[in-house]
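ok so i was messing around last nite and threw this chain in just to see what happens. nothing serious, just curious
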Amino acid sequence: MTRKTLAALALALSLPAAAIPAFVSAQATLAPAAVAAGTYAVESRHTLAEFTVSHFGFNDFFGVIPNATGTLTLDPKNIAATTLDVSLPVAGISTTNATLDGELKSADWFDAAKYPTIRFVARKVTQTGERTAKIEGDVTMHGVTRPLTLDANFYGAGVNPMNKAATVGFSATGTLKRSEFGVSKYVPVVGDDVALKISAAFEKKA
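result:
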């Protein structure tokens, strides 16, 4: 550790609590009832969909799709009335392997040029616990629409300390068969079942 680094650390430790930015202590509430009812937009920078498939039965391999867009209408007093419409850009698929990314976006797989988005629209939302719900809806991928059920968990809500926007967050999981959407290359040696894991943040519209 250099002298400059040590000096900077010592200065930081000597600062009074009042000098520390207020957002350091900010924390979202875990109480679903505290969520502000209204319409929210996906906070794209902090929303991510992860997909996992079996790689020849040797191990699981996963990728992510960032930059989601969409809306959520939510009232904690009437969960059944929730609406959700979210889309993911196929061109954003990333596995940290540039060659594989190109293959996945090609016509042999998801065909980003012809089918640029993966869209999920909720049809029914059923509360299953204080902080959980089952979301039944339809996913459209590769030109095919089929039902998909997501198990969702409320993560937290509050005011984002950086931009002061009312924010609510959820995680969700689900499974689909890619062959049912016409994305069947290398099935079954590369897994047909695709496990989904989603972490989503939404900001309340003015």
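not much to say yet. The CA atoms of residues 172 and 195 lie 11 Å apart.
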